[in-house]
Design a protein that fits this description.
Elements (H helix, E strand, L loop, with lengths): L5 H5 L2 E5 L6 H14 L3 E4 L13 E6 L8 H13 L4 E5 L2 H5 L3 H14 L4 E5 L7 H14 L3 E3 L12 H11 L4 E5 L5 H10 L3 E4 L2 H5 L6
Helix pairs in contact: 3-5, 5-6, 6-7, 7-8
């Protein structure tokens, strides 16, 4: 982990609070903590928008979350509303059944619909990689790139199959690295795990335990 400094890792973090019972007071505390930690953004549920900004911290939200099993048109409407409510970034969940069935044209169509609904917002696409084989991960990454996504992301953190893995991140990085970002999210609780994801190719980290993770990295 010595090659990664605390500040470098902090600048990669989406400081996340997506528990359905989260309150506005907890979101305000999350934003204050994000400013203190120096992380890149906070990620909250769309019902929490708009958020009173603090400093340079970006605001991210989720759509089609966590199942992905809603109509693409509904996701597009969610994206349009999130952009209107001030979101800088959107993390959308694909229809996972399409990925499992290797229907990558369907994946591309829904990502493109969301992209067109919120053209000025950075778009990350959640694949739920723990539920997919490598061919599905590769196909989805390619479809996301064709549809105009900015990032591909491993997981919601809610699926019973699990969260991020070094293997999935490496497959994603090999497929789109250098053109799209790769976000690792789900089950990353300490600096060792975070460093492993970065070494595998992650360029963004979705964390709820951001302080615990950052405490494991040294200052420059």
């Amino acid at each position: 982990m010595s090659q990664h400094t605390r500040a470098e890792v902090a600048a990669m973090i989406d400081h996340t609070l997506l528990k359905p019972e989260a309150t506005q007071a907890q979101v305000a505390a999350l934003l204050a903590e994000a400013a203190t930690l120096g992380v890149y953004s906070i990620c909250v549920s769309p019902s929490m928008l708009p958020v009173q900004r603090t400093g340079e911290v970006k605001i991210a939200t989720v759509i089609g979350f966590p199942s992905g099993a809603v109509k693409p048109e509904v996701k597009a409407a969610e994206a349009r509303q999130a952009a209107a409510d001030g979101a800088d970034e959107i993390d959308m969940v694909i229809n996972i059944a399409n990925a499992i069935e290797h229907d990558f044209a369907a994946v591309e169509r829904e990502v493109r619909l969301v992209r067109e609904a919120a053209p000025n917002v950075l778009l990350k696409v959640i694949l739920e990689t723990a539920a997919l084989d490598d061919a599905a991960i590769i196909g989805c990454c390619t479809a996301c790139e064709k549809a105009g996504a900015d990032y591909v992301k491993t997981s919601t953190g809610f699926h019973p199959a699990g969260g991020a893995s070094e293997h999935a991140v490496a497959v994603m990085h090999r497929t789109v690295g250098g053109r799209l970002g790769v976000k690792a999210s789900g089950g990353i609780r300490n600096a060792t795990q975070a460093a492993a994801m970065i070494d595998a190719g992650a360029t963004r980290l979705g964390l709820s335990a951001s302080k615990d993770v950052l405490d494991g990295f040294a200052d420059a």
